[in-house]
Amino acid sequence: MSAPTTGRKPVAIPLFRRSKRRDLVEVPGRADVLALISVLLGYPDEEFDSLRADLAQAVAALPQSAAATLVQKFWGQFSHVEPSEARRHYVETFDLRRNCSLFLTYYLHGDTRQRGMSLLMFKQRYRAYGFTPPENELPDYLPMVLEFAATTGPGVGEGLLRMHRSGLEVIRTALRKRKTAYSLLFDAVDVLLGPITQKQLDEARQLISAGPPQDSIGLESPLAGYGQADANVPFGPPAYTCSERREPQ
């Protein structure tokens, strides 16, 4: 697609969420889909709202594919939602439910000590490929992982997504159950990653039933499975969930 004729220097989609420049440039179809999903899964704050026109153009210009169709279907629903309602829905969907957390290592390691090592692995992988994420986000934050996948390609970036396929399936299942349009974005990621294995499906079902691993030291009882979790209790590190910028408007 051609960049809008605004006179500003174009910026690649994977970067425009962290940039004040708003023009978009053509990128290969696969990376384009991943980059857009990365942005669309971010909190719809005022900066996001300022990009709506550019996002609409980018979504409409996606090369034809099953994944692109799902992203376009999402945008067709989301674009009609008032900004204040979009923020409220985002918080209720991703910040208040453990089974919809966007921090991938939680599903693989829960709150065990191994999670710290997994987070370090993400940082090392980013550093090795010259990817510099924001300091105020944990490295396993899904929009960030998707951005990394968009910039490094199927082998490197998507490898991190495949490592956490069972967790992605937990989120996708929960979003479908809630009948939220965000499930369409996870369906698109699912298409890009290819068929899920039976082992990954079994792991996802186990996570849904019993929840992620937990260190037993200092705990009176293990956390309940996702289906038994209190949907009104904020989940995730306090610095990253339900902060002032994420309060429903």
UniProtKB/TrEMBL annotation:
InterPro entries: DMSO/NO3_reduct_chaperone, NO3_reductase_chaperone_NarJ, TorD-like_sf. Coiled coil: none annotated. It holds the Pfam family Nitrate_red_del. The keyword Signal does not apply. Keywords: Nitrate assimilation. Residues 228-249 are annotated as: Disordered. This is Nitrate reductase molybdenum cofactor assembly chaperone. It comes from Populibacterium corticicola.
